[in-house]
Each structure stands twice: as C-alpha cells, then as structure tokens.
Amino acid sequence: MQHVAKIDLDHPSLEGHFPGQPIVPGVVILDEIIKAFNREQDATCKIQKIPFVKFLLPLQPGAQIVFTFDMSDSLVRFTGKCCEKIIVVGQLEYSITP
Asked: Which of 26, 47, 54, 56 makes a 20 to 30 Å CA pair with 82?
C-alpha cells in the first residue's frame, strides 16, 4: 500500500528548524508515517513501537513524500521516497485488538 503526504511550508515545526534552510523534523515525518498506516488499517490495528528507523536524506518543506508499507505478521516495513530518492526506512510493530 502507498500513501502520499506533504508537509506545508507553514507547519509550526519548521520555525527554527533551520532558519533560512528549513527541513522537516524526523518526528513530523514519523507522525505522517503513522497517520498513513492508520488510515489504511481498521480500528483494531494499533502501533506498539518503532523498533527501527533511519533517515537517509532531509525532506524539504512542501515536497511530496510517498510512503510504501510492506506488512507481515506483526511487523510493517516502510519506505519514504521523495523525487524517487529514499529518504527514510524503518519498521513499525503493531497488534490487532479484538
């Protein structure tokens, strides 16, 4: 499954991160990853932890990022690409609640 996100130029986290050459903070990218994953799942699926994440390149404000998810048992591998370049990779652990 894929999801496209874009962090607006006026996002409050960009102020001071870094003046004159802003980049999107990693925590904002992670929040978008979790939101995208949750949109694709039903209400019984819950993120338990993020065992691994690596940011490879900075994300510029206003640029589109495409998240791809590969699910297995209780683990989701994700990739985030911008302009066909991988900027983030990682894993999410999730559980299914009855």
From this structure: 47
Q: Encoding tokens for residue 25? A: 């903070």
CA distance 11 to 23: 11
User: For the segment 4-13, what is each residue's pLDDT rounded down to a tens digit?
Assistant: 999 998 999 8
Dump pLDDT digits (tens) for 54-86.
999 999 999 999 999 998 888 999 999 999 999
